[in-house]
Amino acid sequence: MATVDENLDKYSLLEDTAFSAELEYMAFHGQYEKVYAVFKRISPEQRGSCTNKYILHAVVCGGVQELRAIRARTTEEEQQREKEEIVALVEYGLRSFVSDCHSTGALCRELFEAILLWTEELVAMHSFQEALRCYDEALDLEIIRYPQLYSRALLGRARVFGILGKLWEAESGLSFLAEKTYLVSDRNVVAETIFELSNVVLMNGEVEYYKELLWSGLGRFYTDVDTRLAFVEQIIKTYRHSLHVLLSKEVKLVDKLLFLLHWPYYAMHEIRPLTMTGINRLVRFGMLGSVYLLNCGRADAPVSQNTRIRSMHRGNYNVESPGRTRYSDSVRPLSGRRRGVLVTRVFGGIGDLLMMTPGLHALKQKCPAEEIHLAIPRRFFPVFQENEDVTLLDIENDTIDIRSYRVWFNFTDCPAGRVEARTAPRVSKSRIDVFARALGISRVELWKMDRQPRYSVSRHEKEFQEAFWREHDLEGQAVVGIGLCAAETYRNYPHMTDLIQTLSKDMVVLLYHGEAIQGYDWHGVIKVDTYPLRQAVALAAECDVIVTPDSSLVHFAAALDVPCIALFGPIDGKVRTKYYPRCEYLDAKSRLRCVPCWRNEDIPCKLSGTRESACMGAISVDDVCDMVARITENYGASKQ
After folding, report:
1. Rounded Cα gap, residues 17 and 430, in angstroms
2. Cβ–Cβ under 8 Å, residues 54 and 96
3. Residue 213, SS3?
4. Would the pTM of this model clear 0.85, i.e. be above it?
5. 183 partner at 20 to 30 Å CA-CA among 109, 411, 591, 611?
6. pLDDT band, residue 303 (cuts 50/70/90)
């Protein structure tokens, strides 16, 4: 096969269908500079035929890398001549990316990563107003769907306001993030936000609030030692000397204890002989362990706002959230006794939400008199539509006063993700167990708990399913539901096309995907890509078997008690499906000893060096088909 460069020279782009596929492959596997160099040589009229999210993301990343290289090797005068062409191409790539995502209805993570990368480069080039415009565009496009990127956008936006001297605007954005910690998935980002906020409020003359923020930031549990040292150093500067901190009457006893826990590490971290002996690591472990124990059993409250509110009333300043939603009423004082339980999670996926349901049910049985408020994005409400254990709140738009609840469980800082990161690749705990334990379910209660995900099909949804079966004449036929792909590329099954084509010859295939499905227009294949979630799940409930890579369909099948064949690779299928008796999993562990490795989308496969997982490709289509035949035969007989 000719290389991309050769194709570009020899053929018209529109005539060479292999060209865009090769360019996509390069982009998908992180060859950003090469993709940018090739894309630059394509005429504007031909670019539209070879653009998808991987190519456009690579164009932006490659352009940023090129700009950074120019700054490093050329003078300012030479930079200006080269920058204009690069900026124009990157902005073209971003505009095309946004337009393409709007047309498909899928605002993917790569789009927001590209916007933020370009925005941060605009800041480096001192194009501050343009950077603010890009941050606002990302917020308007609902970057909140990706919490890590959302907090990064809010922090960056506030810093730009600070650079421009717009301190009230900077404080507003930082306060919004510090108060709504349930929107942040990383504890270290919360600490970083509080530190940035402390500097801004000091510049605004709010000295008491500034001191309060320093102690609040030091007292929270997070593992970023550099941020901890920054808090300690700022406290020492504020009180002029370490001894003054300990002797000051205005410093609370618990804050003095916190300072004493941090001071030894602060005093020795720059002493070279001690760092070489490893003593500092022991001190660091003791410091973090002590702070963890001090925080154990209590949730992080929002930062205090009394001083800020008084200051803003003096200046007649209205607080607006960066997403254009007012939130000033969320700081109302508490009235009466705290009641109820709050569980927050600002992102999915749907599989994780289903795995939370056994723990939520056990919590409701444990505290029957209390309401459990579950704050999640509104787009996930259908998962809990028939669930009587929880009352739903829109985490993105509803006003949530954390201080009015007796207890708060913050699952935006995902407990299952922390456990798996700590124990990989020897993960043994199911996420169902981890979520339940994080909700305060004891080991004894966990042992008694029903671990099947909780989801039920309503009467109207059952009627829809029956009408669908009649319309497509499915009565008496073997029906297999197939999940086309997972939410992340590294879990996809690369032979899915062959599998669908093979199975559709002997049975009806309901093909599931959250976006419009292109292709697969074969006899025996019915696309389930335009139906609402609950209707699509109602159809799955009547399938003879469901075949899917690691996705929410695995957990829906378990909740609906439908036989399932789950295709696993980097993630251990045994752990994920250990409480699903009707789910059988296939993997390539017998062929590849590296399975499971527990990598994620951001870590390339160690064997292939790409996002695709070699172990998923090692699962045979014949093995899947044989298992489908066995299950449908047995299940069909049992249904009759």
Report:
1. 45
2. no
3. helix
4. no
5. 611
6. low
